[in-house]
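Dear support,

We are seeing what looks like truncated structure output for some complexes. This example has two components. We would appreciate it if you could run it in full and send us the complete token output so we can diff it against ours.
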Amino acid sequence: MSRHLLFDRIDEPGLNTIGVYERRGGYSAMRKALQMPPEAIIEEIKQSAIRGRGGAGFQMGQKASFLPKGEMAKYLVCNADESEPGTFKDRELMQKSPHTLVEGIIITTYATGIHRAFIYIRGEYQLQADILDQAVAEARSAGYLGENILGSGHSLELVVHRGAGAYICGEETGLLDSLEGKRGNPRLKPPFPAIEGLYAGPTLVNNVETLGTVPTIINMGGAEYAKIGTQGSTGTKLISVSGDVQRPGNYEIELGMPSREIIYGLCGGPRDGRSVKMWFPGGSSSPVLLESDLDLAYDFDTMAKAGSMLGSGAIIVVDDSHTALEVMQKVVKFYAHESCGKCVPCREGTNWTLKMIERIEAGESTPMDLDILASAQSQIIGHCLCVLGDAMAMPVGSIVEKFRDELAEEIEAARERANSLAYATA
Amino acid sequence: MSAIDRRPPVPRYAHGSRVPGWDEAVDLEKPPATVPDPALTPVPDELREAIEAEMAKYPDRRSASIPALHLAQRHHGWCSPEAIAQVACVMRLTPAYLTSVASFYDMFYLEPKAAHEVYVCTNITCSLLGADELYERMCQAAQGHDITVRGFECLGACDIAPMASVDGEYVGPLNLDDASLIVEDIDAGRAVLEHKQLRHRACADPGARSE
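Here is the complete output from our reference environment:
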């Protein structure tokens, strides 16, 4: 079943302007929230049990309650870096309904006593950043941003900050360093951003979709929102489906929907009658699942139990016209390029994994190399400051495990090709 | 040339595991660059004002480094030593600091680039759907034109794969023939592949459509 909370008539022309947004009931949640005591809002968010939509799936209400109470320099940072390959849901939301995000930010900062907020948007999203700038300016002239918002005593400065092209800046501490004007290197945790984040102040970092859902939660009430979805994964989720499907794009689904219904029902399945070879359930950093996993429910817990993760909700479908090696090579090349170089297991691990894969293609490998490949991955996971290394190791480890026979055949075939080439030129 | 210099060429792998310039000696005679002297560093007024406006948005002026570098790059065409010195002068930072920041991010150019740029996404979804061939075709088509073509990591538009960002405008899904059309549109100075622009695309979810 699909329900539309965030994507409700999102294609309506002019929804990106405050006039249309308000005519449709926009900013009513903000007005309601500003009448409530801040703790009551946190309580509603906690009751909704909404889990972070950026990838880690941490409960938002819990995260917000980690922030120290009282007046101090606290910050809210909205993570709009969206650089996980396969993910493009926030793009559509920000482009078509930017005020949803602005409203969510106003409510969240009021609830947590924050007076400065930033939207860190990736530099490549120029159109979306311009639209957000426009939305922020409109909200300011309507009196929803600035000093003493609608007489509630709450003040908020909101700045749209453009990045400049680095995957690692989607990692929350790398993002904070980048926002401070540095190279986007991740920091050691703890201290977690909620205690010591931007400019060493307590900082709440949330994804666009998470913050964008806050107005809905306030309007519906947390308990009512929690009835949507499954017990451990409440609410609706924006998902980005891409790859070998007939109708790729963004969809809003109720969590717990069978995966087959998403890939075949909503998206029409692979093209030309082909079949699903593997699929990434949560962006290119999630371990791959097979066709036999298609009947699993699409929610946080089921995906975790199946040995993968829901991540950012980006489903990448690969059909049987592609080899496992080709998929693995693309994934690894990306992470080798994006590793910031701070931690050795990630910097060296991603590069050497790429070299091992190139060796397979060059016909210089033996099937034994698959064991080395797999063991290298297990030495990366959990050994770095952030999860970029893990993000390569998890899918690669799962591909080696699930497509071992195919890879071994590929190794032999490549060796034979290389040998015959050597004889031909000798 | 001594025997030691006859080593095999260093970049042994296609992706190049060596940083360019790794084997060039550092000039130890050169004095370290300090924060540029405003009296000796002329900065165009509009650039200075724009950078100062960015700095005013943040509690710490250093936060404006990335926006300021974007502005300087737009003004000078690339992050030239002159551009970096001007930003450093306005922001009261060292050129080395700004160079370290600029070199971290893919969108900053520390070498001259063409007036127009095309990023062809070559990440997983796009490459499953033929982006590598498209990238090659794009490189061929752009030859002899004032266009920089780059294979880029996921641009966040896998729904229109294979796609490209042409001076910031997302277009897709592209076929191989679109490469030369993109070049024609850029040369003519008009909107690029208007019917394939992402900004006009409706949401895929039928339930999200407006009635």
